[in-house]
Write a structure and sequence with these properties.
The protein is α/β, with parallel strands linked by helices and 162 residues long. The chain contains 3 helices and 8 strands, in the order E-H-E-E-E-E-H-E-E-E-H. 20% of the residues lie in helices and 32% in strands. The protein starts with 27 loop residues before the first strand and ends with a helix.
């Protein structure tokens, strides 16, 4: 896993604002302490800092974090833009879902990094192994790895009994 800080990115001119060839929808998160969130997400979930634009008072106007060529964007709170971090320790209205190469290793690394696990690592009947964790400001993340292909009919039957 890669550890990054804001000072690691001094020239971000080679990072496009939108990488439309690979990704056209970008999760965009708002944090009360965006610099701490960047450090934590890199250290705990294995992101790399790709770009960061900081205001004179230390707020993050925009940052892009990369994980195997895919991006999550984030910023600090900006009252003037009606841009706010979540209130409380859980955001139940959404989650960021990511596929990773080795979900067991990712889970162990997340535990070591201090992620709050809210749904343990387990095999799901629809063919993935996954877990859910909260980040330091309460965003819910799910990480998974495909472990087998399941026929659609079997998944639909199991869903009826779930």
């Amino acid at each position: 896993m890669t550890r990054a800080t804001l000072t690691d990115v001094t020239d971000s001119t080679d990072v496009p604002d939108v990488v439309v060839d690979q990704q056209q929808i970008f999760p965009y998160l708002t944090y009360a302490d965006a610099p701490a969130a960047i450090d934590w997400l890199c250290r705990t979930f294995g992101f790399e800092l790709a770009a960061s634009y900081q205001t004179s008072n230390g707020r993050i106007a925009h940052a892009a974090l990369r994980h195997h060529g895919l991006y999550v964007m984030l910023s600090s709170e900006f009252e003037e833009l009606d841009n706010h971090a979540p209130a409380g320790d859980q955001v139940a209205t959404s989650r960021i879902h990511m596929h990773v190469d080795d979900v067991d290793e990712h889970y162990q690394h997340s535990l070591t990094g201090g992620a709050r696990i809210v749904q343990g690592l387990e095999d799901r009947f629809w063919g993935i192994r996954s877990y859910h964790a909260l980040d330091l400001e309460g965003y819910r993340w799910s990480f998974c790895q495909r472990i087998r292909e399941e026929p659609r009919e079997e998944i639909e039957q199991r869903l009826q009994a779930w």
